[in-house]
Design brief:
The chain has 105 residues and is α+β, with helices and mostly antiparallel strands. The chain is globular, with a radius of gyration of 14 Å. Helix content is 30%, strand content 17%. Strand 1 and strand 2 form a beta hairpin.
Length: 105
């Protein structure tokens, strides 16, 4: 049975919640590094993401991990990961749960 966009999106989010920023012990989804997940009609995925800083030394590694991990999800045809700094990441991007965990609330 062919997956739906909704089930694939859920699987992608779960996948992203298992990828952690190497400098902050928080997954990249809850850290607010993922700005958008788009799935087209052929089940190609485009992820728009950012880094906590423009000069992040782990950026290439994180892109490869995101691309690779999403690519393992059954039903996904292709994965494109795009970097943006517009808007720039800030602590406001953190989920409330992470802010509480980090003592920011």
């Amino acid at each position: 049975m062919q997956p739906t966009k909704e089930t694939l999106r859920s699987a992608i989010v779960n996948c992203l919640k298992n990828i952690y920023d190497p400098e902050i012990p928080v997954n990249i989804y809850d850290l607010g590094l993922i700005y958008n997940i788009a799935i087209d009609d052929e089940f190609n995925v485009k992820v728009l993401m950012t880094m906590t800083a423009p000069d992040c030394p782990e950026a290439e590694y994180m892109f490869q991990e995101v691309r690779q991990m999403i690519g393992y999800i059954q039903g996904i045809k292709g994965v494109d990961v795009e970097l943006t700094f517009d808007p720039p990441w800030s602590p406001d991007c953190l989920t409330d749960e992470v802010k509480l965990e980090l003592g920011m609330l």
